[in-house]
Design goal:
elongated, mainly alpha, 209 residues, 2 domains, single chain
Length: 209
């Protein structure tokens, strides 16, 4: 089976199983999304969701966040990893948003990655979810799933992100990000993947060597 046909079959199955996939981070607007994605680095969405309701109640926008001290932010988010650095990054991010973007979240990758603490992966998550842009942010889950399926052999997440946008059918690109993350988190895990119950196992090169 050709690669394009195999990819389409994979997404037909994932789409039928979960027509409207959503990420697990909780947020109410693009500012909260950006902050939550930054906080989620090297920690779980579950842990982030435990602290963000308190943080966003006190700081629902960039201007409000700047009024909090680093110590106040640290005390709110201290349950998550690297909380001291993340508190500093949040303040720097909000300062740039206020000074350079009038407090609004920019809607292009070029502008987003100019923000302190925002790399391509974070930018593409925000663009995909907040602005419905056809892009894919490759994290460790997606990188693992794609490698096992042998859809792309790109050697870095950024290169894989660029490659996936070119080979995934247009109608599936927007939701591909969520389908692959959820699949990697709950089925195609790093250790003890559930290959016996995998819906797309028949198209997996790891299983069908």
């Amino acid at each position: 089976m050709e690669l394009k046909e195999r990819i389409r079959k994979i997404f037909e199955i994932l789409s039928a199983d979960n027509p409207h996939p959503k990420g697990e981070l909780k947020f109410n607007n693009s500012f909260e999304l950006l902050c939550a994605v930054m906080l989620s680095a090297q920690t779980t969405d579950k842990a982030v969701n435990q602290v963000t309701p308190i943080l966003f109640a006190k700081a629902p926008d960039a201007q409000s966040m700047l009024k909090l001290t680093n110590e106040e932010i640290e005390n709110i988010i201290k349950k998550i990893g690297l909380y001291r650095n993340k508190a500093k990054n949040l303040k720097a991010l909000c300062e740039s948003l206020v000074n350079d973007f009038n407090g609004e979240i920019p809607s292009t990758e070029e502008e987003l990655i100019k923000l302190p603490g925002v790399g391509k992966k974070t930018a593409r998550v925000v663009l995909n979810i907040a602005f419905n842009k056809p892009c894919i942010a490759v994290d460790t889950h997606i990188f693992r799933v794609v490698k096992r399926l042998d859809i792309s052999r790109a050697k870095t997440p950024d290169l894989m992100s660029d490659a996936l946008v070119k080979i995934i059918p247009k109608e599936y690109i927007h939701d591909a990000h969520h389908w692959f993350i959820l699949h990697g988190r709950y089925v195609c895990s790093a250790k003890n993947p559930k290959c016996e119950t995998c819906l797309i196992g028949q198209y997996c090169r790891k299983i069908n060597v």
